[in-house]
Amino acid sequence: MSTTNNLSDQSSIEDLLKEAFRLLKIAEKKTGVNLIDNLSYREFTTIEQLRELLPSIKKKIGRTGDDATAVDEDYHHIEHKSGTNKYKTLTKNCFPRMMFDKQNDSVRREYIYNYDGISLSYFEYYEPYPTAVVFVSRDHVKKLHPLMRQRQQEKIVQFEQRIAEGKNIGRDAITIGINDLLEYVGKENLICWLRGQRITSDTFFNMIEQGKIKINQ
Fold first, then answer.
1. Winning range, highest mean pLDDT, from 8-12, 91-95, 206-210
2. What contacts 98, CB < 8 A, 6 or more positions away?
């Protein structure tokens, strides 16, 4: 009988939390990753899917710097972005956006041009593995650079205006959405997974357009 079945409907919140954290501790010992620190499970499970494409991919430990590398495939700066929501159908509008923060820092602004692979993953609530993953490979990631530069310049203008008005600079992140990937990278150049299975980008986006990917059910 599984551990879950041993917990009856009458289990207290304390019992449930203790059991959940006991299992998380076991998982950390097996993976070497604290899976709930800064939502690290999202990076870990996305990497597990990307391993089909990049066999040498490894998660980098820590909150700063790159999220992963795949040295054998000549990837040294892989960035993972992810998000979730409560919608019932996965659409382009509810797909998470890539967020690059601390854009008031010139060093951070320049660092995003080092990325040689970027993934964007959608997670359903309380699901440890991504429902959908879209990956921009090293062959195409530079196609995003003009858009990144444009968004940064727009932010810098906002920063200057707010400072001149004696205000805090406010939110300092730039974002890139799925429609931006389609426009700048091109659908045919995106690599896609749906519920752990790699599928063609045509199939993936056709399913999204037709409302065939049900989520949070």
1. 206-210
2. 81, 118, 120, 175, 176, 177
